[in-house]
Amino acid sequence: MRFRSSIRNIQTFTKFASSLSSLGKVAWMRLDDEQVRFTIIPEQGTQVWAVLSIDSIFETYTIQSAAPNNTINLELPVVPLQRALRSALGANSASLRLTKKDNVPLLSLTIVTSSISGGNPTAGWGLRSGGNFDENDDEAGGPGEGQVRETVVTQDIPIRVLSPASVEGIHEPRCREPDVHITLPNLIQLKSISERFTKLAAATSTTSSDRGVVGGLGPKLVLSANMHGSLRLGVATDALSISSVWTGLINPELDPTHIEGGEEGVRVHPSTRMKEIGGEDNDGEEGWARVRIDGRDWGRVLTVGRLGGRVIACFCHDHALILYVYLSPEEDSADNSVLTYYISSYSA
Fold first, then answer.
1. What's the chain's average pLDDT?
2. Which of 210, 213, 313, 345 has the fewest CB atoms within 10 Å distance of its CB?
3. Model pTM score
């Protein structure tokens, strides 16, 4: 079993690891000839199923195992990975490989940095005895005349190698076809408003469940959208009712080649019906799909906004919210990396 790679985009990889670490401590990392997958399934809260193209984060990539497609499954602590990657920001190069020390499997991150050492810090400035700069300072050899020294640092992350049998029963959640799909606004802005609403809900709620003291759950936010480019985020407690609305958002067109039944499948799709029953100027609830989500968990999900890609939200009314976060901001990009978030809706 072998895995060795050089990292192409350390900043993107670091932001990605940071977004994962906010939702879980341990990730299932699946490597093969075609993709890199990260999955987080916490006991409570949002599931993350991320599929990254190899080229999106790695420059070189070598993998070998006895499993089909050279698949390697690892259980990986996310926070140590994030810390190691963060230390590599600004490095000349960084590489990741699978190794073993004292019979303990490790994921080793090797970082190469450069620094200037030696030389006289005042040499090379061509100062005359009177304190004036020599006009011919180019011949002085430049400031310091230090030597460039490379420093190599390796950080080992303890992991667990998983057998194919131990992960074959793990599958993505299955949800019905969404009632509404819409492109979300800037996630940084959405996160700021969501956190403000969550704090208001916690401060004004009179029931213990809404204050977030039961089972580690936080105050609930209501997120809803329609097929006419509108998104609404709200919170309601015994003492407070407030909402924020975005309009002019994009409802992506369905691709018949990806829908069961093709053109006919699009015609009878739930989102097509929602578009028909809810007009653009409809102020009622017809045509709106709604989910009730945990405010604190939602705030952690929105940390993925650091990656800056496109985000499409699919609403299954009163059941679930699925977010598709594409690393590339361009719809026709060759990079098919996508992070999928599954968020359950709570009953009122």
1. 86
2. 213
3. 0.85
CA 341, chain centre distance (Å): 9
Q: Each residue of 190-218: pLDDT tens digit?
A: 999 999 999 998 887 655 444 444 444 67
Per-residue 3-state assignment (H helix, E strand, C coil) for the chain: CEEEEEECCHHHHHHHHHHHHCCCCEEEEEECCCEEEEEECCCCCCEEEEEEEHHHHEEEEEEECCCHHHCEEEEEEHHHHHHHHHHCCCCCEEEEEEEEECCEEEEEEEEEEEEEECCCCCCCCCECCCCCECCCHHHHCCCCCCEEEEEEEEEEEECEEECHHHHCCCCCCCCCCCCEEEECCCHHHHHHHHHHHHHHHHHHCCCHHHHCCCCCCCCEEEEEEECCCCEEEEEECCCCEEEEEECCCCCCCCCHHHCCCHHHHHHCCHHHHHHHHCCCCCCCCCCEEEEEEEHHHHHHHHHHHHHCCEEEEEEECCCEEEEEEECCCCCCCCCCCEEEEEEECCCC
Q: How many whole angstroms separate alpha carbon 64 and alpha carbon 74?
A: 14
